[in-house]
Amino acid sequence: MTTGNEERERGKLAPGWPEISYEPYPWVRTGDEVASRRALLQARGDYSAAVPALIADAQVALSAEAIALADDASQELARFDAEAGTVTAPFASILLRTESASSSEVENLTSSAKQVALAEIGESRSDNARLVVANVNAMKAAIALSDRLDDTSILAMHDALLRDTAPQYVGHWREEQVWIGGGGISPHAATFVPPHHTRVPGLIADMLAFAGRTDVPVLIQAAIAHAQFETIHPFPDGNGRTGRALLQGMLHHGRLTRNVTVPVSAGLLHDLDAYFSALTEYRAGRPEAIVTAVAEASFAAIQHSRALVTDIRATAKRWDSQVVARSDSSVHRLKAYLLRQPVVNTRTVAAELEISEVAAQNAIDKLVDATVLTQTSTARRNRTWQAPEILAALDAFGARARRGRG
After folding, report:
1. Which residues are annotated as a binding site for ATP?
2. Annotated catalytic residue 158
3. What is the fold of 308-402?
4. pLDDT tens-digit profile of 58-81?
5. Where's the Fido domain (predicted)?
6. How far is the C-alpha of 194 from the C-alpha of 206, rounded, in Å?
7. C-alpha 233: how far from its chain's center?
8. What is the tens place of the pLDDT at every residue in 318-330?
9. Domain 4-305 belongs to what architecture?
10. What ranges do the domains of the chain cover?
11. Residue set of the binding site
């Protein structure tokens, strides 16, 4: 891959990545808006919607430094994936959950590890926790469908994310104008106005054509495709989480990650201002910032993930010394299950281990006696138990990801 200056000297490249342009559209008020006189006056006349450039055949010209950074990050991603792959279970599930939780937190959807684990067994009252679990499903869809990245797979990711909370939005591209910031009555004062909905299908097809190229390094390609997806903003809701699921799908499709989902979103969390600024830079025709943001996020994600893996391995080793049971006892299988599902009830344990609920309760009781599990409530019905050490490790991961944010 050549740098931008080299390509320009050879006369093969226009000066810079294509930036977006804008086009006017008339805005028709409903007459039912409730706002100040100033806001109502502002919401009159034409507004400007973005027209993202087509990128399917665009030349990717980056500085030598950015290319080297992306290459270093790619090597680290592949190395960590291989490390975790030697002991994939339970780390594949754990890392996928942490990526989903971090991606949700980018959208200010925060939840504790305990509430997310409760939501996964249908016992949480937290709306945010249920949304994180929906994001887990979207990430799973992204990985499962990564062999065929097309419009159907993107719609499937979005469906997995929002089918339970906003079913009216799934299964199709948006059919309305959306905007980011600036109030809810019109796009006139918005921070960014994505393209008119009539342009979305063509722009998605173009982005997917770029994503299917084989002449662009995987991490660079994934970062740019993600930024283009966020610029298109093809849905009324869920664009950020779906776009980061797409990024993970592309890393998997490009075989940088094969065994686990490296929680790149946790790295982005460390400096959200840089991430959002990079998306703005991309729209101005400067893609290097988003490549740099994703590369730096990858380094941070790997560092946080290694610490998480170390914490969980230490906990598993400690449990082995605390629990005395026959080698064929279901207690040992329950220990393994707790590493990826740290809150359980009798029903979920019975289903996972394929044993009776009586046997499940016996296994739970033995781990309570060994101080591996504690009961989360004193109620006689709908009792749940938690593995505090695993929950603490997951919450510590989140704290590390957020560290350094202002």
Report:
1. 237-244
2. no
3. Arc Repressor Mutant, subunit A (1.10.10)
4. 999 999 999 999 999 999 999 999
5. 149-296
6. 16
7. 15
8. 999 999 888 889 9
9. Orthogonal Bundle (1.10)
10. 4-305, 308-402
11. 237-244
